[in-house]
Design goal:
Blueprint: H1 4-10, H2 13-35, H3 38-45, H4 49-55, H5 59-78, H6 88-103, H7 106-119, H8 123-151, H9 159-170, H10 173-179, H11 188-206, H12 209-217
Helix pairs in contact: 2-3, 2-5, 2-7, 5-6, 5-8, 6-11, 7-8, 8-9, 9-11, 11-12
Length: about 220
């Protein structure tokens, strides 16, 4: 019977790298950045530190890789909405719903708590997370909003500012309640209702004249 170390050695290089990222993600969430030593991660991976260092030169590089992968997964899931049809009000509501659903998962809440707890002592943790999550999210949203402005659904404005405002709306009350453990879960109905409120508020501020007026009246517009 093969040992875990032997099984890891038999993996293809990319599969081995993904296995390391899976374990490292779990350890960073559980132990924090300070507690997640390369020795501990190597032990849980099932190989040696040499194997780990063959893929990543430092704990910081490993943390960046984990954050980059998890953020890409989150953003790819959220922005499936770009391919949806329907009026813009429906699409922006679905975008808000997907963003809230992603932010409120247990993994994302625990990651947020870890980043806030560690960023004071380790600024690179906060810098990395902000660059990977917020700045990339703003870039994706900016491109989406630029298209909406071109088609006349949104008024002409700074797309990065609009994106930042949207993210700020999405990371409001529900996320704070989860992060601060005021609630331990949020129902799909609550998420859908909050997504509708976020979309209405955003469209009232950034929608074209017709879309903004409809949002303020609580109506959907093409």
């Amino acid at each position: 019977m093969q040992t875990l170390k032997e099984e890891i050695k038999r993996l293809a290089p990319e599969a081995r790298r993904q296995h390391i990222l899976d374990i490292a993600h779990r350890v960073f969430i559980r132990d924090g950045y300070a507690g997640a030593s390369m020795s501990r991660i190597a032990a849980e991976v099932g190989g040696s530190k040499t194997t780990l260092y063959n893929h990543f030169d430092s704990k910081k590089e490993l943390f960046v890789a984990v954050t980059e992968r998890e953020t890409a997964r989150l953003l790819d899931g959220v922005f499936v909405v770009e391919a949806l049809g329907g009026d813009f009000s429906s699409r922006i509501t679905e975008l808000a719903r997907r963003m809230l659903s992603a932010m409120l998962t247990d993994d994302m809440v625990e990651a947020y708590r870890m980043i806030v707890a560690e960023a004071g002592r380790f600024p690179e943790v906060g810098h990395t997370a902000y660059a990977m999550a917020i700045e990339r999210g703003v870039a994706r949203l900016s491109a989406f909003f630029a298209g909406a402005m071109a088609e006349g659904s949104l008024r002409r404005a700074d797309t990065a500012l609009a994106a930042q405002q949207f993210i700020d709306l999405a990371s409001g009350t529900l996320l704070k309640k989860r992060v601060w453990n005021v609630v331990t879960s949020v129902s799909t109905e609550t998420i859908s209702g909050e997504a509708q409120r976020i979309a209405t508020t955003f469209l009232a501020a950034f929608g074209s004249d017709a879309v903004s007026a409809a949002a303020r009246r609580g109506e959907a517009r093409p």
